[in-house]
């Protein structure tokens, strides 16, 4: 681990005194980015469908569940913090 240098900027950006709150901030930002991207893509798909006069197709429920689990793991990943960077104990 590097030795801290007096008056040097922190090695990673921090917003709060509690590192847990910083990880929660990371999770919130990641979620906000995902939501915005989904909204943007959904609008594009809805415009395409409307131009073609079509309705969305039915979905594969098992695939949706797998995707939902992967999404949750991705979004909650930053909450793992240091443990995530150290690997299994």
Q: Can you summarize this structure?
A:
The protein has three helices and no strands.
Commentary on this structure:
The longest helix has 34 residues, at 19-52. The protein has helices at 19-52, 61-76, 81-86. It is built from three helices and no strands. The chain has 89 residues and is mainly alpha-helical. The protein has a domain at 19-80.
Order of helices and strands: HHH
Structural class: mainly alpha
- The residue ranges in which pLDDT falls below 50 over 5 or more consecutive positions are none
Shape summary = elongated
Distance between the termini: 18 Å
Q: Overall pLDDT, averaged?
A: 78
DSSP summary, beta strand count:
0
Question: Looking at the chains present, what oligomeric state does this protein adopt?
Answer: single chain
Q: Given the structure, what is the number of helices?
A: 3
Helical content class: 55-70%
How much of the sequence lies in strands comes to under 5%
Rg over CA atoms? 20 Å
Please describe the biggest sheet, giving its number of strands, its sense, and whether it closes into a barrel. none
């Amino acid at each position: 681990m590097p030795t801290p240098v007096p008056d040097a900027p922190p090695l990673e950006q921090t917003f709060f005194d509690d590192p847990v709150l910083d990880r929660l901030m990371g999770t919130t930002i990641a979620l906000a980015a995902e939501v915005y991207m989904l909204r943007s893509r959904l609008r594009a798909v809805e415009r395409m469908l409307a131009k073609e006069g079509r309705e969305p197709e039915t979905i594969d429920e098992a695939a949706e569940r797998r995707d939902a689990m992967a999404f949750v793991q991705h979004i909650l990943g930053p909450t793992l913090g240091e443990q995530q960077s150290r690997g299994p104990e």
